[in-house]
Amino acid sequence: MRVATLTIKGSNDWNEDALVLNEPLKLYGVLDGSTSLQPYRGANGETGGYLASQVMKQYFEQLTAEQIGDAADGSLLPIVLEANRLLRAAMQEAGIDTSRKEALWTSALALIRITDRCIDYAQVGDCMIMAQYADGGVRVITRDQVAHMDKNSKKIREQAVREGAVTREELWERMKPSLLHNRTLMNTSEGYSVMSGEPEVADFVEYGRIIRTRLKSLLLVTDGLFIPAESSTDGSPQVGGRHADAFAELMVRIGQSSLSDYAEALVRLEQEDKECRRYPRFKVSDDKTAILIHFD
Questions:
Q1: Which member of 24, 130, 162, 249 has the greatest number of CB atoms within 10 A?
Q2: In sequence order, what DSSP letters do the residues of 202-225 get, joined into one string?
Q3: Cβ-based neighbours of 185, under 8 Å, separated by 6 or more
Q4: What is the distance between the alpha carbons of residues 103 and 117, in angstroms, rounded to a whole number?
């Protein structure tokens, strides 16, 4: 088994993504922190999104075989919920009012544990897990739980740009009401799942098991590595985006080159579109984190 990793800071001051690498347990994951809409900075200037991903990274990497248990079904749900509890405790210690959704530090998550015959997984938010088999077939294991929220927010941004908003401040003012509304839908049936420290997270974690038969490789990624979709005004099909075919294509592209080659090409594309017009997005470059595991 070979494990390749990658993490690249995006346009913001802090890389809010994190890698989980617990080799003794063969426990691997990616985390994508998201800063609260209520401004917060830690003792060293850390954002809430950075702190969220780091709290959970440290917990997962310090786990031992005795702590994770030997459950017959191999469920990762108990440790995901414990990570969520620790996130809530960290926010409370920092003086965050955890009853206010706009103040919460949050993070998406994709986590796997590899055993001799199977892969146990858990996912929250828009971190994704994909598998490729010996015959070349690609299986998208997870579902992007945030795609519908992101689509609506991007429509508002595109409308603001068409109406003349160009500066970061102007776009923020147009986007803020939508983003605040989205926050009220965290971990609800009308909204999306996210690690937020809220007890409701327990009902919104997707988890399960796949078998390793003829499994060639596994890919875990944060959304900064998704294939960007071009702006389309005529309804023509888009190459990238946040749907199953695009995720399968992502796995194929990385398999044809490497994690680093794919990421470098994506960064170049982003730099060529600094105004975020050809590929509508909220920042020039998002944090990018991935784990690619080959089963030899």
A1: 130
A2: GGS-EEEEEE-TTEEEEEEE-GGG
A3: 149, 191, 192
A4: 42
- Give the position of tokens 């913001």: 12
Is the pLDDT higher at 185 or at 39? 185
CA angle 23, 25, 27 (to 5 degrees): 75
CA distance 203 to 43: 33
Please determine, for residue 174, whether its predicted confidence score (pLDDT) is greater than 80.
no
Say if residue 18's pLDDT is above 60: yes
Closest listed residue to residue 161, CA positions, set 271, 267, 273, 241: 273
Structure tokens at 122: 């858990």
CA atoms within 13 A on the CB side of 206: 18
Specify whether the CB–CB gap between 32 and 295 falls below 8 A.
Answer: no
Residue 53, both tokens: 């991903």
- Stated length of the chain: 296
Tokens of 29: 């994951």
- Residue 144's contacts (CB-CB under 8 Å, 6 or more residues apart) are 126, 128, 223, 242, 243, 247
> 103, 96 in Cβ contact below 8 A?
yes
pLDDT at 242 over 90: no
Of 54-58, 172-176, 188-192, 278-282, the least confident = 172-176
Give dist(CA 260, CA 258) in Å, integer. 5
28: how many CB neighbours lie within 10 A of its CB? Answer: 23
Among 135, 116, 140, residue whose Cα is nearest residue 246 = 140
For 151-162, how does the pLDDT look when each residue is reduced to its tens digit (9 = 90+)? 776 677 667 667
Distance CA 31, CA 51 (A): 11
Predicted pLDDT of residue 17 = 98
**What CA–CA distance (Å, rounded) separates 198 from 106?**
10
Tokens of residue 72, six digits: 């017959």
